[in-house]
Amino acid sequence: MTSYDSFMRQHMHGKYPHMDSAINDINNTIYQYKDLKVKFDFFHYNDGTSKQLINLTGTIPVTYKNNIYNIPVALWIQEQHPVQAPICYVVPTRTMQVRQGKHVDMNGRIYMSYLTEWKSQSHSITGCIQMMRMIFGQEPPVFSKQSNQPQQQQQNFPQIQRMPYPPAFQSTAAQGPPTTSYQPTRPQYPPTGNMPPYPTVTQAPGYLPYPNYPAGQARPNIPYPTPVPVGKKEQLDETMVLASLRTAVNDKLKRRLRDTYSQATQELTNFKRTEGELKEGKTRVEHIEKILKDEITQADTAIVILQGKCDELQAEIDAVETKQDDLEADDYVMPTTPVYKQVVTSYAQEQALEDLIYHLSVAYHKERVDLDTLLKQVRSSYREQFKHRAVIEKARKTAGLVNTY
Q1: Got the DSSP string for 90-120?
Q2: What is the spatial distance between Cα 174 and Cα 250, in angstroms, rounded to a whole number?
Q3: SS3 call for 37
Q4: For 194-226, how does the pLDDT look when each residue is reduced to its tens digit (9 = 90+)?
Q5: Which of 73, 152, 278, 327 has a CA between 20 and 30 Å from the CA of residue 62?
Q6: Cβ burial, residue 53 (10 Å; 0-12/13-18/19+)
């Protein structure tokens, strides 16, 4: 986490759908390139529209002819990052001018295959800057503006708070390599015995002061590059060649080491994220496994109980089938409560009296009983039937049953 996290989340929330991936990519970039700063500003498109976007503004180191220059750039992070590639510009200072070329147009817009073939899975802002450094090392995107003052053409000491940058690109062979320590070729004087000394160079504003040395102590010699005569090649001894080769190899190894370290760091981050997801998935699987084991145990217990009930029911069925011939008619109806038993008994007796009255009337029509006997028996039967119906009504009311009488 960097100091820009809260700033980025505050301005990117609701605008960047892949906010976490974009912030992670930006953090990896500013961790490696300390001179880049995170800003939030308006970006104006060519169609006239404008949006507020996160951008990285600052300088990136570029090695050009064994010298390191700080090239000012601005990388605008689009809202769909990392799905969309960033928009990259070279931002020259007041003392610099854009050098239009194969990869940079007159407005400073940077064009390269790394951006046109952008893939969110394999490309990143760090890789984009590495590609820019390699391209700018072959073709500088800026050069210094020419000054009309002769004193500014001769470089004595580096200025305070000024970024080094490649000098102006000239087609003349006498200009020498575009380095910060380069001095224009001085005209050759005739070989006379008494040559006048060079004029003393006055200290210009904005330069470091000359160091003070104690009296009587010789001032150390500061090496300056030897001017190259016009039309002659610079003679390099074996030591300078070896030093140049060592520097080139050292810079190349450093670049490869930084690229390898950045790639390894990103892969390690992905591995750690995958490890966390796997651990979380393992925890969920173990929880689900525990729930399933509990449910299996409960199901096994229920199966055992049901098997016991089935055995009991089968035993009852076998017992009923064995004793079926010995059962009486009253054993088929077995009320569960005394109240229900009283209702059943009274109802059976009431129905029996009803049958008795019916058969008495049949016997009277067949002249098997006389009228007095019929009336006497019917009166007595109706009296008993009334009592049984009263008992049934009272019992049903007590049991909470619907009264149908």
Answers
A1: E---TTEEE---SSB-TT-BB--HHHHT--T
A2: 29
A3: strand
A4: 433 333 333 333 333 433 433 344 444 434 343
A5: 152
A6: buried
Backbone angles phi, psi at 295, to 5 degrees: -65, -35
Kind of pairing, strands 87-90 and 67-77?
Answer: antiparallel
Residue 75: pLDDT band with limits 50, 70, 90: very high
**pLDDT digits over 368-397, tens only?**
888 888 899 899 999 998 998 899 888 888
Q: 144 is written with which tokens?
A: 């210094």
Residues 6 or more apart from 332 whose CB is under 8 A from it? Answer: none
| Total residue count of the chain as it appears in this document | 405
Instruction: Say how far apart CA 200 and CA 396 lie, in whole Å.
Output: 135
Sequence letter at residue 203? Q
Q: Are residues 1 and 27 in contact, defined by beta-carbon separation less than 8 angstroms?
A: yes
Residues 365, 274: Cα–Cα separation, whole Å: 104
Contact 350, 389 (CB under 8 A): yes
Q: Average pLDDT, stretch 314-322? A: 83
Q: How far apart are CA 111 and CA 89, in angstroms?
A: 9
Angle formed at CA 4 by CA 3 and CA 6, multiple of 5 degrees: 95
Angle subtended at Cα 99 by Cα 97 and Cα 104, rounded to the nearest 5 degrees:
120
CB 244 within 8 A of CB 179: no
- Dihedral of CA atoms 132, 137, 141, 147 in degrees, nearest 10, equals 150
Cβ atoms of residues 178 and 65 within 8 Å: yes
- Split at pLDDT 50, 70, 90, the class of 306 is very high
| Assigned token pair, 405 | 């009488």
Query: For residues 228 and 185, is the Cβ–Cβ distance under 8 A?
Result: yes
End-to-end CA distance of the chain: 89
Q: Which two tokens stand for residue 199?
A: 């004029």
How far apart are the C-alpha atoms of 125 and 74, rounded to whole Å? 12
What count of other Cβ atoms lies within 10 Å of the Cβ of residue 85?
A: 21
Bridge partners of 38, per DSSP, are 56
Mean pLDDT of 88-112: 90
Q: How far is CA 348 from CA 48, 92, 250, 357, 400, in A?
A: 103, 116, 117, 15, 20
The whole-angstrom separation of Cα 54 and Cα 70 is 22
